[in-house]
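2024-03-11 09:14:02 INFO worker-7 job=invfold-0412 stage=load source=structure_tokens
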């Protein structure tokens, strides 16, 4: 009975979230379509050409939004998960280019819908002040319309309307083509001399799956190996949506090399896909250590390095969950904690842990920077968005990750491999 009630509750939650998402997505698409049709109708085309242009625009709009239509239908008929859609097995290569096009359009549409009211307000204000100035000029007469100037303004309007979609397309390219190595020095009070200069390469949020191919993961492994680290830390979310993605992930990651080993912890995607057992098995087969509420103690020329790993900690009662995860684990020596999500860092800092390595946030994935302010939905869940943080003598580094969740797009948050060096102070 309890299982049945939990299943009903989960299904209801999925249905409600998908209905809300459907209304938002369809509403945004209606705004975008209406705006583009207004632009087309303002271009002064002949009646025949205008009808043709509108028909083509509507047809292309419907074609691009076919996955959205499927999402809405699935929501009403069989809301199985929060995922937007998954291609049928064996059709990934065929569907992938269209999926990229769809997500570029969707994210561009949100940018467009967000910017349109601002642009319209500015345009209305400019027109108001121009009319006011013109009417106050002595001897003002209505000048004939300059057709070339009108055509230029129309092209400018189309270019401006296309900018959000160009930005979205850039984000799709940046998510795969930019490979950023961040070099970070971690100053640790009282660090033993043998650990001074100890190096760690951190990789996080690979999300092997539909938008992260094995060949791309192998490229990341080559970059990591070229850094010649003492250890490699893999901080969770190895797969995206299915436990079958463990195999290609591990085929690529098996090539990782580090002087003192490769260590990992589980992320939320690894757990909700039920990939824990398979990841444990394949980590062991590759000679890696998957740390699940356990530690690995390494003797570095007489200095103790204690590497602790726990499963994903999130949601409510984080303090209690952290206590449970660390119960019975020795935290002596120089301690490094692998913790997928950074939420619990304020509690971690009270445990005497010197360095916590996290990911999960993707640096916001789509993050717009205005001066010192970063606008991204990830800000709603944590202040530890990306980079180095410190509370007392405890440090946290949040890696932006390599893969993506949802849209295969990164803006203002390029993929990252981190090279960390411990330094005695």
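2024-03-11 09:14:09 INFO worker-7 stage=emit residues=425
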């Amino acid at each position: 009975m309890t299982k049945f009630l939990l299943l009903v509750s989960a299904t209801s939650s999925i249905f409600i979230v998908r209905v809300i998402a459907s209304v938002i997505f369809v509403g945004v698409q209606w705004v975008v379509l209406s705006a583009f049709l207004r632009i087309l109708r303002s271009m002064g085309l002949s009646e025949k050409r205008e009808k043709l242009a509108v028909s083509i625009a509507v047809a292309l709009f419907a074609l691009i939004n076919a996955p959205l239509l499927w999402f809405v239908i699935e929501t009403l008929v069989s809301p199985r998960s929060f995922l937007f859609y998954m291609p049928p097995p064996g059709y990934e290569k065929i569907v992938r280019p269209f999926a990229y096009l769809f997500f570029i359009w969707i994210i561009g549409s949100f940018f467009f819908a967000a910017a349109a009211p601002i642009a319209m307000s500015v345009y209305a204000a400019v027109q108001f002040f121009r009319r006011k100035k013109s009417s106050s000029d002595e001897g003002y007469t209505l000048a004939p319309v300059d057709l070339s100037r009108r055509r230029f303004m129309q092209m400018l309007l189309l270019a401006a309307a296309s900018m959000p979609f160009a930005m979205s397309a850039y984000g799709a390219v940046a998510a795969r083509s930019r490979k950023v190595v961040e070099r970070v020095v971690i100053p640790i009070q009282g660090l033993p001399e043998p650990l001074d200069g100890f190096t760690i390469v951190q990789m996080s949020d690979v999300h092997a799956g539909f938008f992260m191919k094995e060949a791309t993961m192998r490229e990341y492994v080559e970059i990591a190996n070229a850094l010649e680290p003492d250890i490699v830390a893999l901080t969770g979310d190895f797969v995206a949506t299915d436990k079958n993605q463990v195999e290609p992930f591990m085929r690529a990651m098996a090539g990782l090399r580090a002087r003192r080993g490769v260590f990992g912890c589980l992320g939320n995607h690894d757990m909700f896909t039920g990939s824990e057992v398979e990841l444990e098995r394949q980590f062991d087969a590759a000679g890696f250590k998957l740390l699940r509420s356990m530690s690995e103690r390494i003797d570095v020329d007489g200095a103790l390095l204690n590497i602790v790993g726990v499963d994903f900690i999130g949601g409510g009662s984080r303090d209690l969950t952290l206590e449970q995860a660390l119960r019975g684990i020795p935290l002596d020596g120089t301690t490094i904690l692998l913790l997928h999500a950074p939420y619990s860092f304020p509690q971690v800092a009270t445990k005497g842990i010197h360095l916590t390595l996290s990911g999960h946030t993707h640096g916001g994935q789509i993050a717009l920077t205005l001066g010192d302010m970063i606008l991204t939905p990830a800000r709603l869940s944590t202040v530890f968005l990306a980079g180095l943080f410190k509370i007392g003598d405890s440090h946290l580094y949040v890696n932006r990750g390599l893969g993506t969740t949802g849209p295969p797009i990164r803006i203002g948050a390029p993929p990252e491999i981190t090279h960390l060096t411990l330094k005695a102070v």
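2024-03-11 09:14:09 INFO worker-7 stage=report msg="Residues 181-424 form a domain with the Purple Acid Phosphatase; chain A, domain 2 fold (CATH 3.60.21.10)."
2024-03-11 09:14:10 INFO worker-7 job finished
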